[in-house]
Amino acid sequence: MAITIAVGGGLAGCSTGTSSGGSTSSSTSASSSTAALPSSFPKSDVPVVDGKILVAQGDADTGWSVTVIPTSKTGFADAKAALEKAGFKAEPNAKATDTSTTIFDGPKYTVILSTPGTAVTYAVSPV
Length: 127
Hints:
Shape: globular
Largest sheet: 6 strands, antiparallel
Order of helices and strands: HHEEHEEEE
């Protein structure tokens, strides 16, 4: 539970960071640039849905936060399926929908997957 709260706070920071572009030219340049996953991100253990990476930050000690605009209109469902295929188990959530948050437990990482709309956000923390 403590991990969820700590990582959830990191998600709030990411949401704020992505909406800070005030001028039209800033928004235009932000939308044309793509972030890259940090070199320490566990790409072989945590699959990330195909798409444009808007935010990618973190490290192996504190975890990572990644927000992607998926290339597919079913990005959240695709992300869930990829995590399950990689061996992650979704925690039971009676209120889960295609526009919600799901927590996945894996042998090395916990992933909180959420979608505030079109984007898919991953909050990844070491177990």
